[in-house]
Each structure stands twice: as structure tokens, then as C-alpha cells.
Amino acid sequence: QVQLVESGGGLVQPGGSLRLACATSGFTLDDYAMGWFRQAPGKEREGVLCVSSSDASLYYLDSVKGRFTVSRDNAKNTVYLQMTSLKPEDTAVYYCVADCAVGDDGLFEYDYKGQGTQVTVSS
């Protein structure tokens, strides 16, 4: 059974940093492309990034390029999202996803997701 559990969210001031973690079980990180999407109140779901099992970038939201990076610890079956230079517009619930891709229609797709962790950027 595939499970994804996010942690590390919280309140941070503009310009600050946070590292989100996604602990996985039921598969190995070599099996799937891994990624993150976010959803702010009243807004549509927004893909943040998706990287292949060989760490090739499949998708990166323009507004986070140069600020957000993803890494993985295969021994711990954990994926991390390092977020720096955070802005108020980054405020959202962040979801870890497995088996992500961008479809021919440009939509961010995935097969599995976690329960989400809240990130609030505010002074």
C-alpha cells in the first residue's frame, strides 16, 4: 500500500526557508517520479515540481525556479522539498505526490498523494 506522509510545514517570515519532508512507504523511490503540488485557499491546485527517479526535471513551476529544490534519501525512502526566499504567495497546503507527470494537455498529474502540510508565509 502506497503511503506518503508530509511534515515540516509551518509559519515563516517572507524571505525565510523551510524544508518539507515526505516519508514514503509501500514502494521504493526508484519506482516513481516524485513531486509536489500546492493549493492555496480558493485557488486551483498548482503543480510545483516533478522529478524522475533518475532526478531528471519533468516539471518546475516558473515562480519557484531558483528558490525550491527537491532531493531524496533513498535509504530513508524520504523526499525533501527545500524552499528558500519564501514569499507570501507561496502560502498554501503542500502535497507530496508519487508517479507524477505532465500530461499532453499540460496538466500536472499524479497517482498518489499525501495528506498535505500547511505552509504560511507571513510577517
List the helices and strands and how they pair.
Elements (H helix, E strand, L loop, with lengths): L2 E5 L2 E3 L5 E8 L8 E6 L6 E6 L5 E4 L7 E6 L4 E6 L8 E7 L2 E2 L5 E2 L2 E2 L3 E5 L2
Parallel strand pairs: 2-13
Antiparallel strand pairs: 1-3, 3-8, 4-5, 4-9, 5-6, 7-8, 9-12, 9-13, 10-11
**What is the N-to-C succession of helices and strands?**
EEEEEEEEEEEEE
Our Rg estimate from Cα atoms comes to 13 Å
What is the count of β-strands?
13
The amount of beta strand, in percent, is: over 45%
N/C terminus separation: 40 Å
List the total number of helices: 0
Largest β sheet strand count, sense and barrel closure: 7 strands, mixed
Helix content: under 10%
- Parts with pLDDT < 50 across at least 5 consecutive residues: none
| Secondary structural class | mainly beta
**Based on CA inertia axes, which overall geometry fits?**
globular
The pLDDT mean sits at 95
